[in-house]
Amino acid sequence: MLNRVEIAALLPHDGRMVLLDTVERWTEREITCSTRSHLAADNPLRRGAFLPALCGIEYGAQAMALHGALVSNSGAARAGVLASLRNVRCRVGRLDDIGGGLFVDATAVFGDRQRFIYEFALRSAEAELVSGQAAVFLT
C-alpha cells in the first residue's frame, strides 16, 4: 500500500493535481487506488462548486500512470498522451456530491514499450460511477 506522498513521487503531477490518496493493491496487470479528493473544495478540476463526472477520466489516467511506474520499477511514471477514449460511461453527472471515498481501478489490456490500453472504473462503495477504456502513448 502506498500513501499520497509516495504516489506524488511517482506521478508527473504536483500539489493538488495529485488526485489519488492511496494504492490499495496492485499486480502486474491491475491497480486499485482510493481517494477523497473529489470532496476537496480546492480540487483543481472543479468548476466552481461542481466536479463533473467526466473528471473521473483523469482519476483513471492517474491510476494508469501509477500502475505503469510500479510495474516498470522505473521510479516514476513516464510522460504520456491520452490518445483515445472508448466506451466511456458516466452513470452520474457529478462527483463532488458522492459521499465517502472513491475507488479507482485500472486494468492493463495491452502494452508494449510505447503504448498501452487500459480499462478503468471509478466507483463508490455502492456503485460504478465512471468507466471506459483509454489508449496511452508514451512520449
Keyword list:
globular; alpha+beta; 37% strand; single chain; 2 helices; 17% helix; 139 residues
Model description:
- The protein has about 140 residues and is α+β, with helices and mostly antiparallel strands.
- It has helices at about 5-10, 55-70, and strands at about 20-25, 30-35, 80-90, 100-110, 115-125, 130-139.
- Strands 1-2-4-5-6-3 form a six-stranded antiparallel sheet, with helices on one face.
- Strand 4 and strand 5 form a beta hairpin.
- The mean pLDDT is about 95.
Mean pLDDT: 94
Cα separation of the termini: 28 Å
Low-confidence stretches: none
Largest sheet: number of strands, sense, barrel closure = 6 strands, antiparallel
Overall 3D shape: globular
The share of residues in extended strands comes to 35-45%
Number of helices: 2
Radius of gyration: 14 Å
Helix content: 10-25%
What is the number of beta strands? 6
Written as H for each helix and E for each strand, in order along the chain, the element string is: HEEHEEEE
Overall structural class, as computed from helix and strand content, comes to alpha+beta
List the helices and strands and how they pair.
Layout: H1 4-10, E1 22-26, E2 30-35, H2 56-72, E3 80-90, E4 102-111, E5 115-123, E6 128-138
Antiparallel strand pairs: 1-2, 2-4, 3-6, 4-5, 5-6
Please summarize what this structure is.
With 139 residues, the protein is an alpha+beta fold. It has helices at residues 4-10, 56-72; strands at residues 22-26, 30-35, 80-90, 102-111, 115-123, 128-138.
